[in-house]
Design a protein that fits this description.
346 residues, alpha/beta, seven-stranded mixed beta sheet, three-stranded mixed beta sheet, globular
Length: 346
Amino acid sequence: MKDKRMKWVIVADILAVIVIGLLLFTGQAEDKLEQQNLFQPTEEAQAVAVNYDIDLALSSQDCKGVNGEVGVVLITDANYMDFTRVAINSAKRTKCSDSRYNFHVMTLDVSDKDVKALEALAEENVSVSVLPQKEVDLFYIRDTHVSKTSLLKYYIANVLPQLDKVLYIDSDVLVLHDLNKIYNTDIEGKYLAAVKDPSWFFENMHVVELGLEDRGFYFNSGVMLMNLKKIREDNLVQKLEDYTNNNFRTYMDQDALNVVVGHDVVQLPFEANAMNFFFEHVDMATMGQFYERNWQNYEDIFAPVTILHFASAKKPLGAVAPKTEFFRMLQRLWYKYYDGLPPLGE
């Protein structure tokens, strides 16, 4: 019996060494990519982006007859409180006057002051409810910017049993036009609707490994219109948990959702989840072809979007980006909705 226990100890030690080795290898690989500058903007992108130390003027929107109610879910921890408040504030300031937004914020390890800061964002036609959660007990290996908190997405249908549909948005977004158009997308018989992610050509091998060739696209989980009723009926939560616990995947919840929902997904237009990250590394013409758009400049791209998503480790809060990057234009827009918010803790 003692020998058997010793064998299991040895096996556990070997597995621990393998996991540590994988983590170290991943970190070294990321460092090498940065050192080699493999994903630098093309000359075309640099030439177009050089003059973007300006404020972005948003496209006008027609609010005639827009008076629907939109349920929105965000997930945050203490590290993302500023982003979450800005996301809600931007939505409030750009919605049609008769629209009603009900924000449901799932939180992990935030303070009482943080809760009050979120609730203080409520106003006429805007409600904010805070829903404290416990850390998810699922297998997790930390990616560069995907936190374990993101796995709470799996449980939205359970946390909000009174709702049949909800719009989930990541905290690192700006809502720049009214959400009713996205919310009214027909998802009958589908689990969700989402925007296709350029990883299809940017990290093709990763997407191929997920076995999504037949469906023909990989979606970003930062914005999802979710059919909570169907998710509950088909016990999708259990399937997501099983996949996560039995598969090592780089993008965690996003990979799991892509695989588990299968063909039961509707494509949303680019404007529902405009990810700036890819435009810093892929030329405008290629991105336009991917999204079936004929963009001529960055105003064409970002002025009409409904949800702008800072979908990478590079976030707008903090040091100012170099003036030669169009990211600065989007960063200035983010600060438009950040300035004026009371500091956290007050």
